Every structure is written in structure tokens, then in C-alpha cells.
């Protein structure tokens, strides 16, 4: 038996971050899965590196990509957004998940995910009691766990980190910002043009700063120099920016109905009850600005649970038991 690990996931998106942190830390003996194409390419279904394997072999992917193979394929389904979100799903994606991903998971008898919310959704979708769904969580790079920077008491800068897709619900942040006099927003996103367009639409161009292609140090400084992270997502598989912000000692303002983010944030933030009401978000932002009690850094147990070493260890344990 040979374990092959798909190490081709690269980039700045969530799966690539997970892969880039977890795969180098894995201790279970393995080889790299080779292939001539990107794991997101439709041609990866016919990856010769996967096709030539025997039924005794195992392939582990830190993402959702499956293909034709006699080997068992252990996938990491971070969420089911490709099926659940109207703006993300398509006939092609539905067929891919129904004809390749779900059969691969059922045949393997094991699938990895990153949150209790995703685990519950996946169990329902797989609809098989003999498939283990293992929640390994998500990690936070060491640089975010260093001592937090003290904010000036009159600072009113907020952060938004992520893309601007509809399920991220970014518009409410810009609309709320327009209602909070003096507040500023730093947006970390690859789509700087869309950020400026939203800022112009809501008349807050002079109070919005767009940042892209951050290093971890630069991203940490964005969190540390902000009063709080604004995370209005309607759905998430996990919510890594929330962990990073909490690690730096900054609270997270989030929608109460986004279960995965609410689970991550716990007592380290404030929940807004209406995802789409700018006034509700503006009121919470004002409350955060006025709060002078401070937000302590998370304890050692929290820091260990969200370390990449611990996440990789849980992946190793799942594959070893398998």
C-alpha cells in the first residue's frame, strides 16, 4: 500500500492555505501525487498519476478534487458551498460532486473537514452511516500569535478580509460604514477595483483602504491596527480570518446566523442578528468603538487547538487509523 498526497494546491485561497500549512507538517509516510494539470482543472479527473494506482493505494487531497482511480481517495471537503450557494452552484459542479466526489467518499469510508457545521452538512449529503467524517479544524500561523499591538483609544478602524462574493455579504459593511461617522475600513482582497467601486457607491471612498497580496506579517498588522474584524458572511466552512483576528486580540463582528463563524468566534466578538441591516451593523460598530474593556489574547489551549501543527497532527491521526 502507498499513500500519495496531492500537494498541487497553491494560491491565496482557503484550500491552498490549508494545503500549504498542513502537507509539509504531515508525519505519516507518503509520496507526492504527480499530475500535469492544476487540481482545479477538469482534466484532473483523468490524472495519470491517479489512474495508474492500485486498489491497495490511498490518495489524500487537502481539497475536494477526486478523479478516476482504483485507489481509495480521502478528500478534504471544507464545505459544500458549490452545492448549497445559488451563486456558486452549477449543473457541472452538481454532476462532479454526484458522479465523482460522493462515490469517492463513500468508497473510502473517510472524509476530512474543518468545522462541526461542515461535518453535519457532509454527513447529511453523504447519507451513509459507514463513512467517518473527521473534523480536523483549521490553523493559525505563528506570526498571528505574537503579542498584540496596542491601539490608540480613539482608533475607529475596522478590517474586512476576504473576497467579495455574494455569500461573503460585503455590501452591508460599506453601507454600515457610511452610517458611522469617522470610522475607517481596511479591506484585504485581491479585487481592489471592486473594493473601490463599492466604496464609491456608498460614498466612503476617503475612508476605505484596499490592500492586496499581503504577507502574513502585513495581514497581522492589519488586524492589530484595527478595532475589530467585520465578517458578515452568510455561509462559511470555517472562517479563518476570524481565528487570525482573535489570535491577535481583536474581536470579530459577525452575523449570528453564520453557524461556522459563530462557533469559531464564541465569546471573542459580537453577533449581529440581521445579516442585511446596515443600521444593525453600524450600531454594533459604534459599540465596539466605545468599548474600552479590552480583549485579552486567547489562552494556551485555544492557541494549541488552532495551531497548524495540531491540525496536521489530526490529519495524520485520521489517515493512520484509516
UniProtKB/TrEMBL annotation:
Keywords, in A-Z order = Transferase
Example of a GO MF term? glycosyltransferase activity
Highest taxon of source: Bacteria
GO process annotations (BP): lipopolysaccharide biosynthetic process
InterPro entries per the UniProt record, alphabetical: Glyco_trans_1
Q: Which Pfam families match?
A: Glycos_transf_1 (PF00534)
CDD domains from the UniProt entry:
GT4_MtfB-like
Residue intervals of the Glycosyl transferase family domain? 149-292
**Which protein are we looking at?**
Glycosyltransferase involved in cell wall biosynthesis
User: Which species is this record about?
Assistant: Amnibacterium kyonggiense
